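Box 3.1 A note on notation
Throughout this textbook, protein chains are presented in two layers. The first layer is the amino acid sequence; the second is a token string describing backbone geometry. Keep the layers aligned when reading.
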Amino acid sequence: MKHFIVALMISSFLVVVAACGSNESSTDTPGESGNGEAKEHNLTLAHNLSEDHPVHLGLARFAELVEERSEGQITMEIFPNGVLGDEREVLEQVQAGGVDITKVSAAALENFSSQYAVFSLPYVFADEEHFFQSMESEAVAQLFDETEADGFVGLTWYDSGARSFYTVDQPIMHPDDLKGLRIRVMDSQTQIEMMEALGGAPTPMPYGEIYTALQSGVVDGAESNPTALTTGKHGEVAKAFSFDEHARIPDIAVISSAVWNEFTDEQRQFVRDAAKESTEYQKDIWAEAVEEAIEEAEAMGVEFHYPDQEPFYQAVQPLHEKYREDEKIAELLDAFDQMRQ
């Protein structure tokens, strides 16, 4: 209830601000006041991660850089830990104008803009280098701009690592090892179809329920990056982690289209440059966090396994062909494939 009240207060405040702003002359250009000067913006940035998470640290760096570059014209107040709602709820608030900026997993974004499903497809990226190169491409930059009519614009991406399978005690060395196993997946149609293609039983559930589900046997395993073993304490009950690295699903920072259209061109450049720089900052933090998580998980008794990825890759190719029926997804896949070579 407290989260709802906070969100309602912020939404109400922004509605009042928007109403006041509607009295400005219709000749005002976007991002400028009636006298032609750039407006000041005090923005709300909400997400569902803790303050020590590498993505939160990247967002905090983003806020610092924006304030510095804009000389205080643009400031941000960050609400972490899901205090304004989960990813879907906050993104809906961004669309409605109640929150200005949020971080959303690309897997969650596919429920709002279908072409984002490309990032949830397994083995779209050959390795980390291919992933970084693809995410910095013009194809992704265009994708970020194409959702303006949907109420949000992409600003940048943050590394969320390679996702792999982990179970209570059974290493996943081949797709056959998944048969009959109930595996927790994100609430993403693409991820559900991936598990079905690999022979497992997909079991969508919120991240916060995974520990208990593993402990009680509701699920046999899950899929995520190694930090889930430590920050989520999953390594206390899941002792077999298999680096099949089936997906690299980025987090995406998005801004309300309404706010974006109020910025001057100069303010947009401040925000774009700061967002890009914060991504480079976060990539280094993420790499360190993964190394530390592996060491800590080994001390918890987790064993790491390295299966041949080729059988997994071949098993999901029909899924790639299915999603190629979407013209925009096909264009993105072609762009990524060109960078693979």
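The first strand starts at residue 41 and ends at 46. Residues 1-36 have pLDDT under 50 and may be disordered.
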